[in-house]
Amino acid sequence: MPETFEIKSALDIPAHLVGQVQSKLAYVDEHIAAASISPDGQRIQLELTGKLESAEQQALEAKVQSVVEEMAKGAVLPKVEILEDHLVRPTTFDQDPMPELLSSGEVSEEHTGIFSFGPLLTRLIEVFERQFLALADEFGAKPHRFPTLISAEKLGRVQYFRAFPHSLTFATHLRPDLDVINGFSQHAAYEAPNGLNTAPESFSRIQALLSPAVCYHLYFALADKPLPDGKLVATAVGNCFRYESSNMTTLERMWNFTMREIIFVGPADFVLENRERARQYLEKAFEHLGLAYRVESANDPFFVGEFRRQAAFQNAFQLKYELRAQLPFKNSTLAVGSYNYHQDFFGRNLDITLPDGKPVHTGCVAFGLERMAFAFLAQFGLDPQRWPTPVREAFNE
Ligand code: ATP
Ligand code: ZN
Ligand code: MG
Prior knowledge:
Elements: E1 3-8, H1 15-25, E2 32-37, E3 43-48, H2 54-72, E4 82-86, H3 98-103, E5 107-111, E6 114-117, H4 119-138, E7 142-143, E8 149-151, H5 152-157, H6 160-163, E9 170-171, H7 178-187, E10 190-191, E11 195-196, E12 208-210, H8 215-222, E13 225-226, E14 232-241, E15 256-266, H9 268-289, E16 293-297, H10 304-316, E17 320-327, E18 332-341, H11 345-350, E19 352-353, E20 361-368, H12 369-380, H13 389-396
Parallel strand pairs: 7-14, 13-19
Antiparallel strand pairs: 1-3, 2-3, 4-16, 5-6, 8-12, 9-12, 10-11, 14-15, 15-20, 16-17, 17-18, 18-20
């Protein structure tokens, strides 16, 4: 039996923040195995990893209340703009696809949040990739390949550590020291559930992380110089890493996933017009695929201290829209892609300039390939006979 612990929230969490606060509770204390907030926003149910002393319990409760307060106190209702509503498209399946994906061996979980895929998912993802590549072609986007590691120095320059500290994944290596390396080779062992038994001092200081997004690499490559021709459209697919803590239970939230991005760099109107053109293009493509979804304003998952200000800013300037696919089995939606506008944030922080010397503006269209496949299977099941014809045909090509 897991230990449970219920907290009466010091303030009512408004409905539009329940999901966002709930996902942050996974980062509040290592004793929290799962957290849920009652729909009225008044009660917080925690599942704990074990029994706590009363002092520990009080400390945990204080942390939970401070998160609620920082994220929800004085929050104003965001203006939710719905750009497309295709949620009622006919679908053919209403079960959670995860059990069958696991039992058939189509998905295997190598470790929490780390999944391998078999031929069905691999080929289905290729079908979606072809759609995104056709979109990229439409814009004459130049193809790029980016590394899986990302520079700590450059992420610092774009204030990533302040905005998203909770989901970072760090890359390290043993210090180049004979004694350290020999000691490791003789004694290293994985001790469940804690991990490798190696002392932290054996590892070098962090110079690199595992990349949390694709488009950052393009901005880093363009840094500290004028942008040739003053505008650019690029595309790339890459591995992305976000530590989603105890929220990583299915393909909905993975530690390691892949993202396809189409990236626009140039003057503000160029970026905004292209972001809108991409959305209109994909609206047709998704109609063809039969996916049930809607596109609505959203915000990035900023950490607690930055959340209120940054989310309000994104909302006020309509910087982010998410394409949220219907998940019939849980009667909710899941973001499979986003349309983002960063204004001149990267241009300013990385000193990328237009011919007139002003900083460039940037934007991107970003799709999570595993989530695309997961949402599609949640709507149409694992049997291609029940899929919309264009998808089945493209799948069999
Ligand atoms: P969410 O709000 O669901 O956490 P996000 O707003 O952080 O997503 P973006 O930063 O817009 O997502 O990333 C673009 C896309 O990458 C998402 O729409 C989603 O498809 C995918 N993605 C993001 N995080 C994950 C994850 N942990 N596992 C799988 N796919 C993800
Ligand atoms: Zn991006
Ligand atoms: Mg989001």
